[in-house]
Amino acid sequence: MTLNRRDFLKLMGGTAAVFGFSGVLLQGCKKAITEAAERTPVIWLQAQSCSGCSVSILNAAEPDIATVITEHISLNYHQTLMGGTGDAAIRVLDEAVKKQRKDFVLVVEGSIPTGSEAYCTIGMLNGKHVSAQEWVTELGKNAKAILAFGTCAAYGGIPAAESRKTGLNPTGAKPISEILPNAAIINVPGCPPHPDWMVGTVLHYLLKGMPELDEYNRPKLFFGKTVHEQCEHLADYKRGRFAKHWGEEGCLYLLGCLGMDTGCDIPKRKWLGGVNSCTGCGSGCIGCTEAVFPDYGKRGLYKHLTASLDEINGLEEPQIRAAVLNLRNGGSING
Amino acid sequence: MAKIYLDPITRIEGHLSIEIDVQNGKVVDAKSKGDMFRGFEKILQGRNPVDANQITQRICGVCPVSHGVASSKCLDSAFGIKANKNGRLLRNLVLGANFLQSHILHFYHLCALDFVDITAILKYKGSDAGLKAVQAWAREEIALKKGRIDQITAVSPFLPRYEAKDSYIADTDLNVAAIAHYLQALDIRMKAHKMVTVFGGRAPHLIGLVPGGLTQVPTRANIREFKKYLKDVEKFVNDVYIKDVIAVARAYADYFKLGRYENLLSYGVFESDDSGSAFMFEQGMLSGGKLAKLDTSLIREQVRYARYKSASDLHPLKGQTDPDPHKGGAYTWLKAPRYDGKPMEVGPLPRIAISYLSGNKAVKREVDSVLKEFNADISAVFSVLGRHAARAIESKLLCVQLREWLNELEVGGAPRSTYEIPVKGEGEGLVEAPRGALGHWIVIEDKKIANYQCVVPTTWFCGPRDDRGNLGPVEQALIGTPIADPANPVEAARVVRSFDPCIACAVHVVEGDRDITQFRVC
User: Fold this and answer.
1) Domain with B491 in it
2) What is the pLDDT of residues B32-70, one digit of tens each?
3) Are B97 and B141 contained in the same domain?
4) Which residues contact B478 (CB under 8 A, 6 or more apart)?
5) For chain A, what is the domain count?
6) Is the ipTM of this complex over 0.85?
7) What global pTM score does this model have?
């Protein structure tokens, strides 16, 4: 393993100076890197996914994805990238289970349907299609660590959402924690997760062991502070300057931004190596790293707060409450 | 007769498997099976219509921009608004940038390993640092894992693979160059994603797409940043991508005759003015060698062989579909869409062929210059290699056009039109994804989604037999494909991958349990 210290710190902290965990991670980091001589095998399984997490990890910058798969891990199975097809591919999973390899980290992307095995099958063994649930169960028994990448695998996400009309989910989609109730699972949510969160969590596990997790089993390193606390528009919020329409300057709170409720470092870390962010592009946070995504009770993703007096009265700062009320009386927001 | 299962088809988006019957060394029958199902449209019911813009992007992480644009156009039409000029241009820019990302990913990272011999890196004698590192890694993997419990994973994820004799390129230099380009393309596709992010806020799953346009105001700085990435991507497309496609075509010329299909459909994409009806890549339908105007009221979806228990042969907007995981005779979660009763291929090949035959000058010039290399006429395009070439040609043309759109942006101007959500309304949004024609439809009641429908590209080409037993396009295109070694059917995989299937897209559907009777598509 040849990850240099600068890369490691950058990955963990965006810009380490901003985040200030440099000191903590520095301790023993160098030693861990020299000792971890061999690449840890990773089996990456996709279930009810859109492959968005996989596409996102291709955007890993430091280290880039080629470095990750040739230097840091041994990517045994990944449906979108692997050379093998059909039997040549599925043999890898089959052997990992049959030979009880127990040497690999299991990554799951996507939720697991429990309504019927037919809702997601991966490969054929002995003339029978094998369900995603079966693979997760069997591989989960053998894995030395289990990572849920993306909000679907971590909490169910969109495939596990209910119809507002029937109150039912079409496929009985579940997060992997419900398929493997006794396993210790690290959640790396996000729709999609930032590549640094995924690569960083794997490397943290390999080099320094289990990262410290919050109550939703997310690494505090990435999800410990809210979007709001780190937002580009925080000064606007403090001054009571609110955008009334998308594309306007100001805090995006009134446009339904969920930054106050969402643990995520994107405003600091930004997407694609600093190009832009959810709040920076004037759109706002949709809370995709949270277990309640995309429902937020009955709230949903987009809601201009001027619609509800209760919510406005719930705002603590009087000057902000006044500004919101003022906007509410002034006409439509978001439109 | 041998029955062969390719399960899973890897290096595509999502869960697809293929069953083929091989007789005298050739495919005589084929079944295309979508193996995953989520039920997006049911999940959308009762939500704020604007939420659809984000939720439908999660149908697919490879082409979220297409779903986002289709959804926002669909909402525009339901809200009775139109994107302003900046909004239209910004949509073209993010969609075009994602076409580049998707096409480059498809050729290099999804398909190349069907042609290129990755083990050639072991014979590399040059001095390129990146290639030497890959070589050292591969050697170490093989030595380290030899005889071990995990021997099969040496040089993973590239090995193991199908090992049919003589199936990969033999020339070491060509292979090594391709491996170098595979690595370079990882960086280039990321640059294309940076272009998407400049205006879309993030990628995949753009945060900035909304009804009426985008939320990101174009500035001199972000336009300059987009141009900076575009310059690198364009250089790669012109100097490397186009040439590599031609090199693969020379090495595998028989694939001009394989995977052929000639019923083609395109919705048209990249609006070239505010009329909404002029496109960079033309709209139309080609069948029996004859070009016709698109009439989406002729679309039906049939379910005899799909795992749904409801009525068949309905217009997608009138469909009443309920899943039946154990339906007898059914073998897929994909329905069989038909246009005027016929199966249709959608994607870059149809866009390019229809634009060419419609007399689109820019397309004709590029297509003719590639065809000249092979002394071929336009009929060569309806093939495995034609699909790869069509993507490369689209990419080249898009690089030029993206710069034009950047120049047309009004710097500092509003990036979108405003809207109010109506109490009632209906809308339609048609666009093209990198892999083909995509349509979204909505019905709004009481300011909420009463019904939402998507008809997506992969359902068109990876769908099963229809009610009359006619094969779907991928199934039909497989017929006649020679399979040299039934244990390693790499030829069939090449045909399937040339379509660029995206199964998450194709199998998202549980249609609403109410009719959209008032709504008419035309």
Assistant:
1) 2-117+168-506
2) 999 998 988 889 989 999 999 999 999 999 999 999 999
3) no
4) B18, B20, B27, B30, B259, B492, B495, B496
5) 2
6) yes
7) 0.93
